[in-house]
């Protein structure tokens, strides 16, 4: 098979039919009928699954992978990539904010640049001032803390070769961050500037964005642990210097004045730092705990396909 198109479904009912039509037309222009469309239902609460199953009845190239519950966007994407069999794999969101027609542009770039990945980046991040500022801070902090050069405003849409997808699937993290994995997998990757539309409200709240940032950093870097060590060392040295200062002052100048406020403030400060540092270490311990259990990062409830279509996971 020459091409696999992979997309996830979550609150995607208004877009499923249109996505299928546009993705199919673009795929036919590129590889005729030698393609498949894999839709991964990530526990969508609306009618996305029912509509996708209807597509399998009228189009033998559509395969629906129904997960047993909502596992998250990144894990659902990895499950879809594992099911893809094409020589090239086009990963894209199904909400039409990313255009299925980009496939043709990406394919041209892949052929002319002889690369393994062509991925999209937004010319300008959507949303207001806070959305743009928080996005810029996320990418800058992520690069600084992990050393991974992930581009700003990257989107889901990307065209990948078979060897790149096979290498990407070698990563077996349970608490995965696919954005970082895209980069660390390597190979020759080329970015293409795109204009992402705004057709649906975001499902990422501020708390989810912060949780995503913490997971991304702790998945690829031990720098926060190193920083806690140096912070503790700095605090200890500072305390030692202050003790020496007080001893010299008491011996040669005068007894230091009593200070209830300064004592309480110091206790609160250092108690907070201790709890914070323990929390950072706790996050890493929790990730180790999650990894050693070796639980599958998704569970497939059922695969829907035309009776003549081979099970993509066999």
UniProtKB/TrEMBL annotation:
Stored SUPFAM superfamilies: Nucleotide-diphospho-sugar transferases
User: Could you list the residue ranges that cross the membrane?
Assistant: 225-248, 260-286
Q: Which domain of life is it from?
A: Bacteria
**What residues does the Glycosyltransferase 2-like domain cover?**
4-167
Q: Where in the cell is it found?
A: Membrane
Does the entry feature the keyword Transmembrane helix, yes or no? Answer: yes
> What's the Enzyme Commission number for this chain?
2.4.-.-
For this protein, the record's InterPro entries field holds:
Glyco_trans_2-like (IPR001173), Glycosyltransferase_2 (IPR050256), Nucleotide-diphossugar_trans (IPR029044)
Q: How would you describe this protein's topology in the membrane? A: Multi-pass membrane protein
GO MF annotation, one? glycosyltransferase activity
Q: Which UniProt keywords apply?
A: Glycosyltransferase, Membrane, Transferase, Transmembrane, Transmembrane helix
Task: Report which residue ranges the record marks as coiled coil.
Answer: none
Q: What is this protein called?
A: Glycosyltransferase family 2 protein
Q: Which organism is it from?
A: Variovorax ginsengisoli
